[in-house]
Amino acid sequence: MDTFQFSRPTTVDQAVQLGSRSSTAQQAAEVRFVAGGTTLIDLMKLNVERPKQIVDINVLPLDKIETAPDGGLIIGALARNSDVAHNSTVQRVYPVLSQALLSGASPQLRNMATTGGNLLQRTRCVYFRDTAHACNKREPGTGCSAIDGHNRMLAVLGTSKDCIATNPSDQNVALIALEATIQVQGKKGNRSIPIHEFYLLPGSTPNRETVLEPGDVIVSVTLPPPVAGAKSLYLKLRDRAAYEFALASAAVVLKLNGNKVEYARIALGGVGTRPWRSLEAERALKGNSINATTFRRAAEEALKDARPASENGFKVELAKRCIVRALTMSTVA
Ligand SMILES: Cc1cc2nc3c(=O)[nH]c(=O)nc-3n(C[C@H](O)[C@H](O)[C@H](O)COP(=O)(O)OP(=O)(O)OC[C@H]3O[C@@H](n4cnc5c(N)ncnc54)[C@H](O)[C@@H]3O)c2cc1C
Ligand code: SF4
Predict the structure, then answer these.
(1) Crossing angle between the packed helical segments 314-331 and 292-302, to the nearest 10 degrees
(2) pLDDT, average across residues 164-176
(3) What angle (nearest 5°) sits at the alpha carbon of residue 258, between those of residues 254 and 260?
(4) Which residue among 218, 237, 256, 332 is least crowded, i.e. fewest CB within 10 A of its CB?
């Protein structure tokens, strides 16, 4: 690990100032905020991240979980994944988020990992994490070792010829289904970014993963008030039952009117280059009766644009079955 400067601002303004001193992209990569450190420190040990300055944001007052004036929920960026997962309001009103968080990592990691850090966790593509291999995400323009290499864990939706890496988060799949908004403070003031606009597709610039700019501090994530009468659920399929990333996962929020779907939000994990909302699946569900045929049609729609690589073709059928199963589980009383 290289040496670096270390600072610990006590206000968000100071953190923004420290984070936005850079004027070039290269300088921007030299400053990193650290929250739980469970992504950043790992990547520094691997020489994937080599910041010259670390800005520790842990003393900022951003760890509260509070009811919003509109009846929604405000989750501070420094709220730990375990605190959010075990929060009584989250468990009662947004169970999909609690379930997603508890399916991720291990208890020790969840005690450290934060809401903001989880939003920005990096891909687990093995070539991204190994500096001996070419990787467009780590070093733009060097090539993608995964396209003709080991790609079993990687994405089938939203890929490009330059990168097929999966967004590995569970939390973020639930946040997409809940239509969360990311609250950011930066050089240009405060911004509210709907989560569906937060993540970028890899295209020809896979190194750029979100719309954040240098110095932007995520201050909180807000959830809209729950849809009255809706149920939500997270289902994660993986190689082993614990301490493993998703091969495919589904977050569903469903409201029924009698036997018909009145409201549906469907998001997928483990298969997309970003946490993946499927508007196609939602359209296939809305207004239709809940039965195996409707659920399978929704699943087919969700994966219709899938483009598997050499080793991950199995994910297409797996993700479809994951959606069908999650929908079935969420509609049994
Ligand atoms: C062994 C292992 C297994 C794991 N398994 C899973 C799993 O199954 N599912 C899953 O979803 N995740 C898993 N994870 C990932 C884990 O959830 C993330 O590492 C964690 O959520 C990151 O949060 P953090 O606070 O530690 O982030 P940090 O490492 O502190 O930061 C991550 C990034 O976010 C930036 N950042 C952090 N906070 C802010 C902020 N407020 N504003 C702006 N930038 C910020 C940092 O600069 C850094 O670039 C696993 C991790 C490990 C090490
Ligand atoms: S898939 Fe993306 S992260 Fe993996 S090697 Fe290719 S460019 Fe790098």
Answers:
(1) 140
(2) 98
(3) 55
(4) 332
**Domain limits, CATH 3.30.390.50, in the chain:** 231-331
AA identity, residue 65: I
Q: Whose CA is nearest to atom 5 of ligand 1?
A: 105
Closest CA to 154 of 139, 166, 171, 163: 166
pLDDT in tens, 211-232: 999 999 999 999 999 999 999 9
Q: Which fold has domain 5-56?
A: 3.30.43
Could you list the beta-strand ranges (E) of 217-269: 217-223, 231-237, 248-257, 260-269
From ligand 1's centre to the CA of 37, what distance in Å?
Answer: 7
Q: Which residues contact 68 (CB under 8 A, 6 or more apart)?
A: 74, 222, 223, 225
Numbered ranges of CATH 3.30.43 in the chain: 5-56
Q: Which atom of ligand 2 is nearest to the CA of 151?
A: 1
- Structural contact between residues 284 and 301, judged by C-beta atoms closer than 8 angstroms: yes
Tokens at 229, concatenated? 């009468």
Dump pLDDT digits (tens) for 314-324: 999 999 999 99
Ligand nearest to the CA of 131: 2
Task: Please write the tens of the pLDDT for every residue from 131-155.
Answer: 999 999 999 999 999 999 999 999 9
Report the C-alpha dihedral over residues 107, 61, 171, 194, rounded to 10 degrees.
180
Say yes or no to pLDDT of 22 above 90: no
- pLDDT tens for 43-60 read 999 999 999 999 999 999
Would you state the pLDDT for residue 2? 84
User: CATH code for 231-331?
Assistant: 3.30.390.50
Query: How far, in Å, from the CA of 260 to the mean position of ligand 2?
Result: 42
CB contact set of 47 (below 8 Å; sequence gap of 6+) = 1, 2, 131
CB half-sphere exposure, 35, CA atoms < 13 A: 27
Whether 171 lines ligand 1, by a CB cut-off of 6 Å, is yes
